Amino acid sequence: MNAHRWMSTQFFSFYITWGIFLPYWTGWMVDAKGLTISEASLIMSLGLVARGLSPISIYPYLSNKFSSKALLNGAGIATVIAILCYIPASSFTSLLIVTLGINLVYPILMPALDSAAGVLAQNRLLTNYGRSRQWGSIGFVVAGMILTLFTGKFGDEVILWALLLGTILLVCLGFMQAPSVLSKKPQASSSQKKGMLHLFKIKHFALVLIIVIFLQAAHATYYNYGYLYLQEIQAPKYLIGLIINIAVLAEIAFFSVADRKFNRFSVGSLLAMASLGSTIRWVLIFAVPNVLVFSIAQILHAFSFAMAHYAFMKYLIKNIPASQVPGAQGMYSALAMSWSAAVFTIFGGYLYEIEPRFAFLGMIVCTIPAMLLSLYYRKLEH
């Protein structure tokens, strides 16, 4: 199969499920399972800790044993099983156990997909990462738009069933014929034997990683409390999914033009612009607490998330050897997407209970350091 078509299909099917799990899961546990906001926040924070363990330990180990295609299929099947375990769970303890379980298997899919894209790009089989990745964002939008219709009619209980159905679709599409390079079992190499710490010997890797950790951590409040905050500022329930997906539409727009319009920018410049956009986004939501301004601020997701992610992938493809790509992706997923978000989910939850707007303003403790470090890195590049 054409590498671009295969990669686009895989991104699309995974992000359909991510578009359900990421913005709606805290709200689902509050509304469908009867947890308090603080209980649900604690479960999601501990889940983020487990989510960080998976890509930094389980994923690199498995990536050295199995092909990319086999790993994606296995992680998808394990995720279906984990979701089914939510059905009988009703107590705080049982929901915590299941959430820890799903966060050990489900997050493997994210670095595995980006690693596959990196390998295809390095083998010159995928020449336009942004164009493939935009289909992931489209899947995210499709999930939110469809889910909004069903939650408005049947309530938040349907969120679980939507996630289950989406993951089954993901597994089915995962058995499509993949580019042959992704079906090859990995060969042990000297760089793999050195472990992930060897990555820190690569020029500027540590600095770039720290910057993207800050930038992705700054989304903790939005991902975990954005759905609840929109209810707080009295957004119509039938519009919440649409408002959330404005961010993803902006993301799609960015990825669709990224390789043409932003390829000439250095990684440091991209990270600096992402930091500025993120700072403006959270300050706007804090300063003007209404639905219209929140919706406008969603456009800045193209900078705060998409541009930061694109910059890291650009750095990875250019600087990281193919054998080290799974380790780099695992570290990025663990530290930037999981553990840092876990810390700032707790921080954001504390601020949210004082005043919901404070939870968004609090995220500039991530974006301002990221901006300063990005400007410093930009000087090192020249």
How many structural domains in the coordinates? 1
Mean pLDDT: 87
Provide the succession of SSEs.
Answer: HHHHHHHHHHHHHHHHH
| CATH homology group | MFS general substrate transporter like domains
Main beta sheet strand tally, sense and closure = none
- Give the low-pLDDT segments: none
Rg for CA atoms: 19 Å
Count the DSSP helices: 17
Question: What features would you highlight for this structure?
Answer:
single chain, 17 helices, 79% helix, MFS_trans_sf, cell membrane, transport, 382 residues, MFS transporter
Report on this structure.
With 382 residues, the protein is mainly alpha-helical. The chain has a single domain (3-381), classed as Up-down Bundle (Growth Hormone, Chain: A). 79% of the residues lie in helices and 0% in strands. It is built from 17 helices and no strands. It has helices at residues 3-31, 37-63, 68-84, 92-105, 109-122, 129-154, 158-174, 190-193, 205-217, 220-232, 237-262, 267-287, 291-297, 301-319, 325-354, 356-361, 364-381. It starts with a helix and ends with a helix.
